[in-house]
Amino acid sequence: MSSAAASTTPLADEVTIIGAGPAGLMAACLLRQAKWNVEVLDQRFDVSARPANAASYNLTLTPAGRFVLAQADISMQDCGRPIVGRRILDAGGKVHGFRYGAATEDYLLSVPRHELIGRLCDRARSLGANIVGGVHVIRTDPTQGDVVVEEPSRALSRLQRKHLIAADGVYSTCRNDVVHATQAGMSLRDNGVVYTTLDIPTGEARASKLDPSWIHFSSGPGTMVIGLPNADESFSLVVEWSGGHTGTVEDRAQAEEILARFSLNRLIGLVPDATTALVGRRVRKFSYVACQRWETGRILLMGDAAHAMPPYLGAGVNTALVDAFAFAKAVERTTSFEEAACAYERERQEYVGNLDSLARQHEDALVSGEWGGPRWRLRQRIDRAAEQLLGRRTIYQHLIFDAPTKCVRGQIR
Fold first, then answer.
1. Mean pLDDT score of the chain, rounded to an integer?
2. Where in the chain is the domain with CATH 3.50.50.60?
3. In this predicted model, what pLDDT tens digit does every residue of 315-328 receive, in sequence order?
4. CA 107 from centre of chain
5. Less packed terminus of the chain by CB within 10 Å, N or C?
């Protein structure tokens, strides 16, 4: 490990961030801009690499997410695809389109996850953050700031750190330490839905007239496929089904068993040789995480480590980015890490709780088959008419577009 990572003498304004995902790297950028000494520990040797069999899908950036990235001089416009709404491909061959809203910024920007991580990583390093890969955090001490890690040599080391930000994802090691220290409640559950990813190349997407300005949905009994457009007009597919098993798709027989569930799915039908493409892919599950406390002593939870929900709203990465921004702004107006952590927790928990409730409603509609059906489409038409005639915004529009944008542009001082 580098000399910076091996030091045991806390610096005046220093923080160790555990996890080099969107939340951790965004926090590294913003805190370096505030002249903090920042190190980032991650178990991956190459933080910005994209494993060949990763079950990773595109991320969608809201106005708030794009604004926060801009504070670190990061833009994703050149590699992203603006999305203005949803298109439902029904079983009868019809296409139903619904815009997100009438406002100029009511759009999502679909970007490759590995590209976002790569740019965040490059920017954090250019600002002077020390990013150390190949370090697996075993446990933390919320009161002393100690971190027990396994280094690439497999040796265990105890590091003493002044402040810790745990941004180590859904299955956070640090979260359990915070929950134990605070004796606060936590829920971690999955909804029985598993997912993997496939791709529709540009040629096939164009030939089938898939409009790259829209997210496309195609569902069936216990299944859902979401098509996220890329800058080159290809589509990245999130392939979901209920009751499956996690792990790697080992062979063609297993791939064919999975694809049998999607025999009539219009998006899967556009994937060239889907059976071969599926072999070697990882199958994972969606999980919910909800913690009553996000901070204690020297440790602060951020992003999916504090709150995680399935990506039905397209808001997860944006919530993580705004977490980092909210904490950085709290640091500016407080006198200690602990005070800033408390302010951050107060400001973010209500919004995240409301977002979690909306995600669960979307989940129920998806699992039941209601989502995208006739009643759902009717409500969408009523909502769009109410917005145009009365200026009335839906709960979805408020939580995805309005509230977080107001938050980052002034509501958080």
1. 84
2. 3-189+287-411
3. 889 999 999 999 99
4. 17
5. C
CATH no. for 3-189+287-411: 3.50.50.60
pLDDT band at 53 (very low <50, low <70, confident <90, very high): very low
Give the alpha-carbon dihedral of 59, 405, 392, 83, to 10 degrees.
-30
Whether 8 has a pLDDT exceeding 70, the answer reads no
CATH fold group of domain 192-284: D-Amino Acid Oxidase; Chain A, domain 2 (3.30.9)
- Taking residues 277-303, report their average pLDDT: 86
The whole-number average pLDDT for the span 113-133 is 94
Find all residues with CB under 8 Å of 285, minimum gap 6, and list them: 190, 192, 193, 194, 195, 246
